[in-house]
Amino acid sequence: MKNKLTNRQKTFARKIVEGIYSNTECARLAGYSEERANEYASRLLNGRDYPHVLEYITELRQERERKYGVTLIGQLERLQKLSIGAEEEGQFSAAINAEKIRSALGGLTIDRRETTHTIDQLSRDEIVARLSDLQKKYPQAFVVDATYKDVTNESRNGEQSVETNEESLALEHDSNKDRE
Q: Mind listing the pLDDT tens digit for each residue in 121-166?
C-alpha cells in the first residue's frame, strides 16, 4: 500500500497521525499549495478519492498503539480509574482534574482561551479611564499608608489623606440628609 502513495500523501498522513496540526496545516506541511490546502486535506480524508491514504493513516495509528500501548479507550479507562481512586481518597481536586481531561479526550469539552484586553495595547487615555473606573468602584484599593492615592489626578501628585476624604464624605452625607 505504501507504494501507491506519493511522498506528499505519506507526509500528510504522518502529520495527521501526530495530531498536532489542523487538517489544512497538515496539507500545507506536506507540500500542497497554500490556496488549495483545505481542498486537498478534505479530499485526502474523505475516503472516496484517496482510500489508500486513509488506510495508511489507520496503519500508522495501529503501529503507534502497538509501540506505545496508548489508545483512546485505554486512556479513558485509565483516567476513570484515577478519578474514582482520587475521589475515594477524598482528593476531589485530583478527581475533578482527571474527569476534565477525560471529557476533553472524549470530545465533550474544548479548552479555549481568549485574551480580550491587554494593557500594552491600550493608549494612555484608555488606561487612565480604566484606572478611574476602578478607583470609583474600589476606592479602598487605592489607600497606601493611610493616604488615598488618586492615580488619575496628576495635578496634586494624586495624594489625599484618608481623614480628609472621610471628612468630605461625612459632610456630603450630612448635606444629603438636609435635602431630605
A: 788 888 888 888 888 888 777 777 767 667 666 544 444 444 445 5
Burial of 62 (0-12, 13-18, 19+ CB in 10 A): exposed
For residue 26, give the nearest of 38, 131, 160 by alpha carbon. 38
As a CATH number, domain 2-68 is 1.10.10
Three-state secondary-structure class, residue 122: coil
Residue 150 CA to residue 158 CA, distance in Å, equals: 4
pTM of the model: 0.42
Q: Name 146's Cβ contacts closer than 8 Å, sequence gap at least 6.
A: 161, 162, 163
74 exposure class (CB count in 10 Å sphere: 0-12, 13-18, 19+): exposed
CB-CB contact of 59 with 48 (8 Å): no
The domain limits of the chain are 2-68, 72-105, 119-179
Q: Once rounded to an integer, what is the mean pLDDT over residues 13-30?
A: 92
